[in-house]
């Protein structure tokens, strides 16, 4: 995955409607959809990243990792691209204070979405920790900064009163003592009664992942979003070198948590990554094949701005995870034949009556579940983008 410099942009986005069954990560489901938010990697002045809450109302995306906390020992490196334009700094520091993201996290959580903080990214350069004790100390620090607010803590909190639902590990170069770091966060999260927190990772598809091998061998993750792109084993290699079966074998036989889910990580557009983008029949075939494995938990995509700038792609993902698909039977070197049927019921398209309010450029004017204004300000017209979104353009 990648991070981008901070920048300003005029933004727009899409809203989606799908049943509440997709609200929040579901460890027993195979139709989770995770999309990273925060980097505006499409880097467009128009059609780029909107506020986080935009992607939480009426959306099939149920997991949103915030990308990225680029530094652990230097947590001033909280980088959310153009969203950082709405942040200030704490007095006397360079650490961002982001009240709009605080508000949006709480809004998303009220809608049942799982919001994680992704740590690392392609620009992480600290290399980990000199010892296990140092790793645990920094885990405690991040827990105080981003976990539930502690009355006795004086830690500066970039998201104020909001706390994330867990952490995502996205390290793409070799690090030291990351297992004690992740294990400490795991223990902190598990010690909270009455609320479930999640730990995820985003390894590359070559197995074992060089950067995160230690953590994956020693720490119990709830799910891993394997990056099946930019590598020989990615989705474009299906059926040849595509190795979802290897990750399924790890999940069921070697992972500390034998119920860990494996998400199929994909680029959200042709330009979202260096290589590995799939669409159309190829996308459908890769998802159908992968969901035949017991550990399959859904799809991950990089990143939000690319996904919502690529009309119809997310529709295809939802369709491939939907109930209209036939049962899938797969046979591989690591599994016996299995049959899986995933059921997702779509809502019917709602009609809306034109009102006196006119929708501005890039605003929503139609889509499944939409009941607002349908007439656009001149000279714009309502243009279909996906089943869930039509916009004034």
From TrEMBL:
Q: What EC class does the entry list? A: hydrolase
Q: Which CDD domains match?
A: GH18_hevamine_XipI_class_III (cd02877)
This entry's Enzyme Commission designation comes to 3.2.1.14
- From the Swiss-Prot or TrEMBL record, state where the protein is found: Secreted
Q: Which PROSITE patterns match?
A: CBM1_1, CBM1_2, GH18_1, GH18_2
List this protein's GO terms for biological process.
Answer: chitin catabolic process; polysaccharide catabolic process
What keyword terms does UniProt attach to this protein?
A: Carbohydrate metabolism, Chitin degradation, Chitin-binding, Glycosidase, Hydrolase, Polysaccharide degradation, Secreted, Signal
> Which stretches make up the GH18 domain?
31-324
Its GO CC terms?
extracellular region
What is catalysed by this protein?
A: Random endo-hydrolysis of N-acetyl-beta-D-glucosaminide (1->4)-beta-linkages in chitin and chitodextrins
Superkingdom classification of source: Eukaryota
A Pfam family matched in the record: CBM_1
Domain CBM1: from-to ranges: 357-393
Signal sequence extent: 1-23
The UniProt transmembrane annotation reads: none
GO molecular function per UniProt: cellulose binding; chitin binding; endochitinase activity
Family in the record: Belongs to the glycosyl hydrolase 18 family. Chitinase class III subfamily.
Protein name, UniProt field: chitinase
Organism this protein belongs to: Achaetomium macrosporum
């Amino acid at each position: 995955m990648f991070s981008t410099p901070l920048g300003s942009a005029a933004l727009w986005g899409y809203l989606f409607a799908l049943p509440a069954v997709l609200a929040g990560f579901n460890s027993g489901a195979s139709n989770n959809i995770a999309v990273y938010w925060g980097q505006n990697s499409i880097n467009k002045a128009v059609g780029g990243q909107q506020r986080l809450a935009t992607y939480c109302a009426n959306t099939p995306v149920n997991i949103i990792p915030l990308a990225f906390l680029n530094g652990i020992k230097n947590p001033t490196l909280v980088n959310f691209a153009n969203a950082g334009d709405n942040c200030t700094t704490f007095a006397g520091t360079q650490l961002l204070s982001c009240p709009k993201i605080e508000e949006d996290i709480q809004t998303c959580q009220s809608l049942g979405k799982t919001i994680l903080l992704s740590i690392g990214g392609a620009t992480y350069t600290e290399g980990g920790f000199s010892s296990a004790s140092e790793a645990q100390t920094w885990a405690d620090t991040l827990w105080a900064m981003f976990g539930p607010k502690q009355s006795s803590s004086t830690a500066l909190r970039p998201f104020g009163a909001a706390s994330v639902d867990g952490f995502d590990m996205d390290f793409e170069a070799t690090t030291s003592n990351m297992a004690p770091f992740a294990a400490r966060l795991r223990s902190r999260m598990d010690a909270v009664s009455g609320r479930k927190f999640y730990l995820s990772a985003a390894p590359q598809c070559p197995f074992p992942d060089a950067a995160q091998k230690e953590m994956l061998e020693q720490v119990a993750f709830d799910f891993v979003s394997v990056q099946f792109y930019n590598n020989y084993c990615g989705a474009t290699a299906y059926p040849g070198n595509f190795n979802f079966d290897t990750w399924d074998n790890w999940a069921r036989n070697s992972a500390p948590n034998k119920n860990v889910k494996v998400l199929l990580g994909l680029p959200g557009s042709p330009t979202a990554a260096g290589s590995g983008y799939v669409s159309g029949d190829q996308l459908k075939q890769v998802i159908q094949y992968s969901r035949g494995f017991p550990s399959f938990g859904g799809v991950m995509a990089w990143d939000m701005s690319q996904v919502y700038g690529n009309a119809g792609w997310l529709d295809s993902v939802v369709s491939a995870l939907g109930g209209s698909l036939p049962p899938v039977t797969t046979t591989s070197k690591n599994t016996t034949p299995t049959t899986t049927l995933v059921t997702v019921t779509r809502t019917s398209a709602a009609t809306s009556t034109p009102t006196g309010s006119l929708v501005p450029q890039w605003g929503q004017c139609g889509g499944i579940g939409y009941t607002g204004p349908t007439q656009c300000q001149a000279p714009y017209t309502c243009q279909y983008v996906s089943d869930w979104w039509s916009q004034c353009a």
